[in-house]
Amino acid sequence: MPIRNLIRRSVTGVFNDAARGERPVLRRDDALFAPDSVAWRVHGDVVSMLVGGISSLLLQMLHPKVLAGVWDHSDFRADMHGRLRRTAKFISITTYESADRAEAVIDKINAVHGRIRGTLPDGTPYDALDPRLLAWVHVTEAISFLDGWRRYGGGREMGREEQDRYFAEMARVAERLGVNPVPRSRAEAEAVIRDMRPELVSDARAREVRDLVLSQRIGPTITAPAARGLMRAGIDLLPGWAREMHGLPSRPDDILARGQTQAMARTIRWAFATSPNVRVWPRETTEFPPG
């Protein structure tokens, strides 16, 4: 089997459970976002999205109410990989699949959130439909995905105007999820993070989930060194204050991790350059094509 196909099969297996018949999401011409959108570019790069996803998880868990929803209402210790897969699938569907399917998966997430509520150890109530908590999750994901793309996906020269376009596009999903405030520019996203920083906490729960995330295997055992590099790249993408809260200081091998991750990103882009999913499929196409 050609090396390109081997790489594609390995990467596809990270995000899709073959035993359950999962296949990659089709890029369709009736998607929620147009093919020339910034979202299509940012969300289409495997490595930069992985790095951004790791970084966003590390940010999200610093909010005790967001963390409590995961702690109290999911089997994250036994199924962290499944959780990561489901998040990746949500991003893929809402970016590339038909607008109707995107709306359906958003409705499903809203229904799940509607069942998640409880109290923190100190008795403070939390509710997953709280618009501010949804804003924290949304903003940390969006800014991490964007910054991952800028560092590893080929967007190094992306100007502020295009960055603002990305946040404006993401606002369409945020509004449907009940996010408030909804940032429509990078400055507004940074303001949300700045305003919510006083609510963040690094405690025993956050440290346990941090360690669980950073010890995750991504793919088969043979890819363990690459997974460790991705984790280091995700940490390296964090703002300095978040690294300090997590007790993850800069290390001499951060530069090495950047170089390894950039090389990995280039290799995977090369492998997927001939994939059937680099083209845009008409709305009547309902099954992923072979190849």
Nutshell version of this structure?
The protein is built from 13 helices and 2 strands, in the order ααααααββααααααα.
Describe the secondary structure blueprint for this structure.
Layout: H1 3-15, H2 38-43, H3 46-60, H4 64-73, H5 80-96, H6 99-113, E1 117-119, E2 125-127, H7 131-152, H8 160-177, H9 186-196, H10 204-214, H11 224-237, H12 240-246, H13 254-272
Antiparallel strand pairs: 1-2
Description:
This protein has 291 residues and is mostly helical. It has one domain (3-17, 26-275). Helix content is 61%, strand content 2%. The chain is built from 13 helices and two strands. The chain has helices at residues 3-15, 38-43, 46-60, 64-73, 80-96, 99-113, 131-152, 160-177, 186-196, 204-214, 224-237, 240-246, 254-272; strands spanning 117-119, 125-127. A two-stranded antiparallel ribbon has the order 1-2. A hairpin with a 5-residue loop joins strand 1 (117-119) and strand 2. Helix 1 packs across helix 13 (254-272). The longest helix is centred in the middle third of the chain and has 22 residues, at 131-152. The radius of gyration is 18 Å and the shape is globular. The model has no long low-confidence stretch (mean pLDDT 90).
